[in-house]
Automatic annotation (TrEMBL):
Ca(2+) 1 binds at E259. Belongs to the peptidase M10A family. Matrix metalloproteinases (MMPs) subfamily. Keywords: Calcium, Glycoprotein, Hydrolase, Metal-binding, Metalloprotease, Protease, Signal, Zinc, Zymogen. This is Peptidase metallopeptidase domain-containing protein. Residues 165-329 form the Peptidase metallopeptidase domain. Binds 2 Zn(2+) ions per subunit. Can bind about 5 Ca(2+) ions per subunit.
Amino acid sequence: MVQPSYHHLILAFLIPLTLSNAVVSARLFPNVSSLLPDYAPLGGAWDAFRNFTGCHRGDKYDGLANLKSYFQRFGYIPHAPPYNFSDNFDDALEAAIKTYQRNFNLNVTGVLDAATLHQIVLPRCGVADIINGTTTMNAGKENRTASSSSKPRFHTVAHYTLFPGMPRWPEGTEELTYAFFPGNELSDAVRRVFAAAFARWAEVTSLTFRETASYFGADIRIGFFSGDHGDGEPFDGSLGTLAHAFSPTNGRFHLDAAEDWVVSGDVTRSALDTAVDLESVAVHEIGHLLGLGHSSVEEAVMFPTISSRRKKVVLADDDIKGIQFLYGSNPNFNGSTATSAPERDSSHAVSATSLLTFFAFAFSVFALL
């Protein structure tokens, strides 16, 4: 067995400092039947917004400041005020709502009607819909910006969207490796879910994906974390932002450990209102890791929201066109998808088990300091 290097030991101690609220195990349910019947979940992170039904410009309502923070978080209000947001329904909030309604194919009224609020409170991806003041959706409509006087900066092709500057993995890349945060100690069943999610993208592109035991050496690094975990994008508990991933070639992919993740079984039949399908979220976030932004095509996996107890893993035509624009098509792709799990990397000098054991030891030593 290869002895852990001094470099690895230092990195092991740095992880708790940079990911101060990382958790050892996420809320992962092996299947829907394992959910406890007496478990009483709390409401979703944004359920209180339902109280704003019917609010419009000129109103003042307790809590509207929180809704403004929501819209700022996802890019609809470009700049925060020097102090806290007010509870006034002002012009900026109305403009944000209209843009949001346009992106999600709702009636553009600027009013917080029931349909708009129903969409707002759904669990969603933590990646913003509007980046650098430019909306990234609009279902194939012309490029738009937050300011009508500025020129569009986000590249939109058909319905799918790409990040500003169209970042992608380097030309000629054929294989990307991925690894899991050692502190999560994920089961083989969970790893197979991610393998299946990567396989869905590999089926339609020239890219392949391989799991590796080397977390620090992997192209893509996956982990379950809670709250403020050191990347400037804190998680907010059950049924808020489910996960987020960064554009190429950053490689970070984080999931909220507070969610009730269902690993296998029919999530639509779960008795738990807060059950979230792990593969559905993984497929979406991998799209971001490869360079896709959000789509306003509701059938696309790159649509920003997904209801609890819903499975959505099949790439839509919009997703396939977007990823093939970036990386070309798999020569074996015939227009239909059928997933197969990629081979795991078993050739690494240090096995995943030994690496996890080493990190567990390092963390325990750190706790005693």
